[in-house]
Every structure is written in structure tokens, then in C-alpha cells.
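task queued by scheduler; priority normal; single chain, no ligands, no partner chains; default sampling; output format set to C-alpha cells
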Amino acid sequence: MASEYLKYLNRDVKPEGPPPELTPKEKRRNWWYYHWKIVAVVCIIVLAGVSMLLHNLGITEPIPDYQIAYVGSTRLPDETVEALTDFFQERGEDASGDGKVTVILTQYVFYKDTDAYDYAQLTLSASAALDSDIATQTSYFFLMDNPAGVAGDYQLLADAEGKLPPEGDHSWEDRVVPLSDVMENVPSEASGLYLARRGFYDEEHTVKYKDACDELWETIVAGKAQ
């Protein structure tokens, strides 16, 4: 028994030759087998980074054809906002040429109960945001529950010809139209709103797609919407 064991230990072991060289296809397959998870993770990270970059640059965001500023004392519900934007969208055109009509309504809420700290802060933020909207010529259309206040504070409501009022003229009656006069089935939360458009000091400082906005305004106030 021992001799057999010694024979086994002292056996003539011939080293095996080198493994056959893999073909290029086999090498690629072997590499992917051990590394595909790493590649997948890297791809996910890269795609997420690109998506975030495009989003931050606004490249993936829809290009607004029409922008509306709502200036009121209460926030409009989402359903009301959707109904209002649909109203404009159905009557507008694809001014940007991106294949769709996009309407954005921004709410600037000036709460009446400014004695409460939270409401006072929100109202202050809304005021600053509206100032920025006006300065950057963002919104063309204005929806208001208090047009007299907007006309008095900002003096930007355009007349029938689209012009700004003279200095010191805070009138508004002939510069607005009740929303209920031009929109059927107005949501109850918007039934008391007035629609107006803003004026501009010169043609170099206007909203984007102003011609399309002018045309939509004329369509709405003339009752031509189908």
C-alpha cells in the first residue's frame, strides 16, 4: 500500500502545454462576461448625468409658445389651470416650430392675509417673481382678479392697439375683457377673472413670438375661437 502511495508521489508528471490562444471573438466574449456589469453601471451614470445637464439647460423642456401671468389673491387649482391653458392651446399655433402648442401659466399669488408670516413671505416672493417676469418680457397674457391694482402698480396693460398707457394713466376698464365673455364653461374659480395683454416700450424689448401672441389675442377678443 505504501509503495503504491510512493509511486503516486514520485510519478512522472508532465506539465500541460499552454492553453490554446483564444480567437478575437472569444476574447471579446470573455471580456464582456467579466466586465458587462461595470459597463452597464458606467452607462447608467453617464446617461443620468447627460439627462440632468440637458434638463438644467432647458433643452429637454418644451418651448412655450404662449405664457400667461395669473395675478390673484388665491391660488388656482390644478384643474382650473389645465382648463385655462387648454383654452389658449386650442386656439394658438405652434409658434416655436417644435411640433406642439405649449402654453405655460405662472401664478403670482398676493395673499390678502399678510398678517400671517407665511402668507407675507409668499406674497413678497410673488411680488419679486412678477417684477422679474415683467422685466424679462416673459408673459404676454395677464389674468387678474384685481385689474385696477395691476394697472395702478405696474401700468403695463395695453390698449386696443397694443400700446402702453400714457404716464400717470392708471385706467383699466378699456384694457381688459372679462374672461367669461370670451371663454365658455369658465371654471368657477376663474369666473371673476379679467384677461388683458401687456404693452411694451419698443419692438426690441418684447415677448418671444409676439406676432403669434398678437394674433391669438385678436382671435380671443373677437370671439373667433371655434
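post-processing summary
- The helical segments are 2-9, 24-57, 78-91, 117-135, 147-154, 179-182, 210-221.
- DSSP finds seven helices and five strands in the chain.
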